[in-house]
Amino acid sequence: MKNKSDKGENSCSRREFFKIGGAVAAGLQVGAVAGAGLAAGKDPSTHTGWQHLGDNTQFVDRSKMIRKGPAYEIVGETLRPEMHESAFGRQALIMRDMRQYREMIKSFDAGEERQEGMGNRRPVPQGETSPETTGGEKSTKDDTSFPPVEAFKEPMLSWYKNRPDLYELDKLRVEEIMPKKRKDQEAYGEYYTLINAWSDSWSTHESITEPPEESDFKIGRRKLGDARPFKSPAHAAKLIKKVAHHFGATMVGITTIEPDWCYNYNLRGSKERGSYEVPKHWKYVIAFGVPHQWEQVNSNPNSGTSFDAYSRSSIAARRLETFIKSLGYPARRHSPMDGYDLIAVPYLVKSGLAEQGRHGIAITPETGSNFRAAFVTTNLEMEIDQPIDFGVQAFCEHCQICADICPSSSISKADSNEGMNTRGYKHWEINQTSCYNFWMQSMGGMGCRLCLIACPYSRKSNWLHSLARKVDSKDPTGLVDNGLTYMQKNLFEAPEAHEYLPPPDGRFANFREPPEWLQVKNYLDIDVNDPSIGD
Amino acid sequence: MITNLVVFAFIVGILTGAVVVGANSWALALGLRMSWWRWLLSALWYILLLFLLFAAFTFMGEGEVAAGWRTIGISVVLMVILGAGLARILLASRSHPDS
């Protein structure tokens, strides 16, 4: 009996243990889920299209690695670096002196030919000692020959006299290594076609100053080589999308040119400012873009900028243009920093990157309206993409958040875009002039971008927003649309439309506070008037 | 990142096991006669609680603190109502407590 009782007590205490343990585990699990939620919300990897290091700007905390003392021990006279000390800098000086040396030799040879028969001893040009004393030999007519030390001008002359070892290395490079490289290039260069195009792309920085018939067929002053054939249009599209992503494009789509969507004036590089015929080699349009910096974009309209995404998409466009040209196909970029010859939104829609929203701009599945576009037109034949439908049209019809929040009332509050007609095409249209007038009133980087960020689709790609977007796009009933719109309007705080205006009507409000690193009070020792408080 | 995820999944897995064992002990202690669908309802209530908390704190993490607190407020009301309903269902099956 005693044993049975003990067993009962043990059983009871074990159950108590499980009960308490279970309750504690449930509490811990709730805490863990809350913590995971916080981490998911903060997770920098959800900043689609932006590389980010999170709260830290360094991977390693260096505060514990700090050592005392100067960076270097001084062991002699300190000097600033001179151009001829580095191999790169010296190469420019070598080329300069070699050019002059060869010209001198040429003029000397011409003179020698004229004086043929006057003796075979070759006079030593001024500044050059005889080959016997320099080690320099006969082959002055050969472009690969390296001049003797005495043929160089200062500072190279003194440098080579003091550093004969470097003279020999430079000579080796010019006389043997570089000619061999040229031969290797001829023999194996084709094998490296793509990496050369890739490399060219990253170094591009030219501006458009000539009409398409000229500029699209050149890289700098160099004419395009022969077009390298692709295995198929699908291969071409796959490669172009892949490299565009590497060049900085977050999303890429391909479509064909539509003359209606090319501006009818001011063709870049052309002297004619009026109407023009769309160049025949603009057959395909590669559409792409990148989002604004996610931490900062929320602080529109008065503490935002367009130029972060403008710059990144424009740089991607330059790179992609050069890449295509390097493969022998004409190409022209159309980007915020270099200008457009075509209208952005229709091509984003046609290339399947986005739908056009109530606010007139593009909404992508990945980043919503937080997106700045650039394009490259080319005749490289590629497999094209088709327009997409992920529920934006239906959503925009009842959402109206952008219209409600627009400080200039430029966005339509109509129930639908029925009856709207923009140059023959039906889509949502806005009052551009009143919109632009508000740009001129806003502070910070000029512009507004409020509709861009107030759009419920413009959310980071964390699990919550990704799930909402996915479920919404699959719901034919409209219930999810309504639920999400209700949540957006009632859970999330935002200033009223008039608050974004300048005082006295508003207070230069922002959709959200700027990140701490863009707030003057945190870093600058200057007197400022906070417009939200007043003078 | 993936390492953190694996560690998190491991810890949550252990906690889930402990919660299941603890829930069974509570059911026995309270004299609840748990059928499969009562367990299912209880699990769904608990999962919904975790889901709403996860969502609320995700809002907070991405800087939408007000949205996070509002979600918690709505969640508490919702979970209390659903919890009351669940308790009625579970207690209806109650026999004499086991301890």
**Number of self-contained structural domains of chain B:** 1
Ends apart, CA distance between termini of chain A: 87 Å
Low-confidence stretches of chain B: none
- For the residues shown, what is the average pLDDT of chain B? 89
Number of helices of chain B: 3
Indicate the overall shape of chain B. flat
- Looking across the biggest beta sheet of chain A, what order are the strands in? 3-4-8-5
Which secondary-structure class do the elements of chain A indicate?
mainly alpha
Helices and strands of chain B: which structural class?
mainly alpha
Helical content class of chain B:
over 70%
| Biggest β-sheet strands, sense, barrel of chain B | none
**Total domain count of chain A:** 2
Q: SSE order of chain B, as H and E?
A: HHH
What value does the Rg of chain A take, in angstroms?
34 Å
Share of β-strand residues of chain A:
5-15%
Global outline of chain A: globular
Record the SSE blueprint:
The complex is a heterodimer of chains A (535) and B (99).
Chain A: H1 2-42, H2 87-114, H3 131-134, H4 156-162, H5 164-188, H6 193-202, H7 212-215, E1 218-219, E2 222-223, H8 233-246, E3 251-256, E4 284-290, H9 294-297, H10 307-326, E5 331-334, H11 344-350, E6 355-356, E7 362-363, E8 372-378, H12 392-399, H13 401-405, H14 432-439, H15 450-454, H16 463-474, H17 479-491, H18 520-523
Antiparallel strand pairs in A: 1-2, 3-4, 4-8, 5-8, 6-7
Helix pairs in contact in A: 4-5, 6-10, 8-10
Chain B: H1 2-29, H2 36-61, H3 65-92
Helix pairs in contact in B: 2-3
